[in-house]
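Dear colleague,

Thank you for sharing your sequence with our group. We've completed the structure prediction you requested, and as agreed, I am returning the results in plain text so they can be pasted directly into your records. Please verify that the sequence below matches your submission; if there's any discrepancy, let me know and we will rerun it promptly.
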Amino acid sequence: MKIEHVAMYVKDLEGVRDFFVNYLGGTSNAGYRNPTTDFRSYFITFEDGARLEVMTKPELQDAEKTLNRTGFIHVAFSVGSREKVDELTERLKKDGYEVVSGPRTTGDGYYESCVVGIEGNQIEITV
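Please find the predicted structure tokens below.
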């Protein structure tokens, strides 16, 4: 068994799609729109076949996303090396994204950083 994809609702559909394509190397499909409900989505596929669906529809509620909360907390992306973790973290920081931890080696041996990326959602960058 495998996880087929993970999905998230967002307010800025194109901006979120562009984040995952430009920073994390995803490839987006052409998108889907239901003309009756105005539901819209993109599937973003990553190098190893993992997929993320980003979706929007009218009248979404966007509750505050505190760093310490229950539920899904981050999406982690492996970039292949410590140097790439450092480079991408610095690039995101220069582009105005908040780095909330790292780059660092965690107590359980991961080399990672965590950035508050699109719409207050955390993105973990690891080897």
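Summary note from our side: The longest helix spans residues 82-94.

Kind regards,
the structure core
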